[in-house]
Amino acid sequence: MGTLVDGTDPDGLDLNLNPLKTEEGNGMKIRAPLHSIDVRGRFGVGVVFTTWRGLSVGRIFTVPTNPRSVRQLVIRGLMTAGSRAWAALTDGNRDGWETYSDSQSRKNIFGQDVRASGFNEYCALYVMASEVGETPVSVAPITAAPLQVTDGACESTAGGESFTLTWTDEQGGFVDLWMTGPLGPGRQPRESDYSHISFTPDATATVIPAGLTPVTKYGVRIRQVFANGQVGPPTAFIQATAAGA
Description:
Layout: E1 29-31, E2 38-43, E3 47-52, E4 55-60, H1 70-88, H2 91-102, E5 106-107, E6 113-114, H3 118-131, E7 153-156, E8 163-166, E9 174-183, E10 195-201, E11 206-207, E12 217-225, E13 238-241
Antiparallel strand pairs: 1-2, 2-3, 3-4, 5-6, 7-8, 8-11, 9-10, 9-12, 12-13
Helix pairs in contact: 1-3, 2-3
């Protein structure tokens, strides 16, 4: 049968309608009705659906930052070097690192205890030993990781925009200083808020961070680092107040 004058075929379908166009980035898959079961993928350019801890969730789509800071590039370079060094180890050494990793426990981003592989443990110690200026070891450690730094305490340094951090020197290696701030009244910082500041030889027993905002509170955490790259647990949150100029 022919087409009607108004462009509609006898079955009532408009022949002039354009096909549906798919927006770039639409990759959303809906299983069952939208309000009941599961949604995954990206909708448009603004919303992403995924699974988190067994739940279907939606979040705003963001592009991860890549500041390419000097420290970030240094760590990336050390990780690449560590991966190559792992490939050059003997089979016996690699087996030793796998055995070592069985006795270690690390926390993931959710605070859960997880076991890393021998490769992960080797690269972690390779990076840390390189950072403190020591030569990375090929043989897995047989000693326990350092204990927590003892007696970590802060005092304002008179006459300067700084404070003095002290600890009991007793294990050797280095003390790794992390800080966050300035802090507002009553604010308790998260672990992810801290940034690495410096490595100080343990025997020094003191370090004075300078260039801080006068009469302002900061969060401080320190941990022990062996020369082979093993690290101990960080201290609990230490609140420090920079003295006035």
